[in-house]
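your task:
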Amino acid sequence: MEWLERLNASINYIEENLEGEININQAAKIAFCSTFHFQRMFSYMAGIPLSEYIRRRRMTSAAFELQNSGIKIIDLSLKYGYESPTSFNRAFQSVHGVAPSMAREEGVRLKAYPRMIFLISIKGDTEMNYKIEKKDAFRIVGVKEHLTLNVEENMTRVPVLWAETFQNGRFEIICSLSNREPSGILGVSTCMNGENLDYYIASATNQPVPENMYDYEIPASTWAVFECIGPMPTAIQEMQKRIISEWLPTSGYEYADAPDIELYPEGDTTSPAYRTEIWLPVTKKA
């Protein structure tokens, strides 16, 4: 399928550039999506962050070279994009459990991580309830955290922002602002073309912006809106993974250039019956 072909083409690019610089923006461009979406899709489908996959593949190749050539460790570290033998040594040990200087010793145990290939797997054992809706632009107001292109780092920073928002009393203020649809507290990732990567905890509103808060205009878009049932954050994380790995490849849609939205209505977020929504911005494939 074309969607999988694009992902595998981006993997080809990474493999061809293990020795040298890997431009993640270029890999995302090959996959026809933003850098943010590419990294997130990869981590959901592969089960590991993109940065970890690249590190494992480079250290697999480096181990082969150490065992089959007389290359110096300092030259090998530069070859695989490390600024110093110290940083290369740290990466090598994190993968193999031994220093690169020991890799040439007879009987030493090393690890090999093969090249990844994406294939479609049709499970179909659990239903996914969704609807396609067009929405006009709407304004949100709330707190925000600037994100980086490091997806795994963001996965730790966003929960901290939620905790801080509850502790400092701003969550109640955000709730009081809500006077427009969609009704509820929104978690919004603004990942437009890999730029302006901010995460908002906000409400849809036309009220003024309180002190130390921000507003943002959600553009008119088409959304695939998925129902998610279960305790947070486990249920929504699992649903996001299923959307990327099961629904998107076969849907006839692809990511659109608009924010991702999580909609949290009032209720007990720890309850097995808690219902929330995931809004995925989509466009029909050409």
User: Anything to note?
Assistant: The chain has two domains: 2-102, 130-284. The mean pLDDT is 89. DSSP finds nine helices and nine strands in the chain.
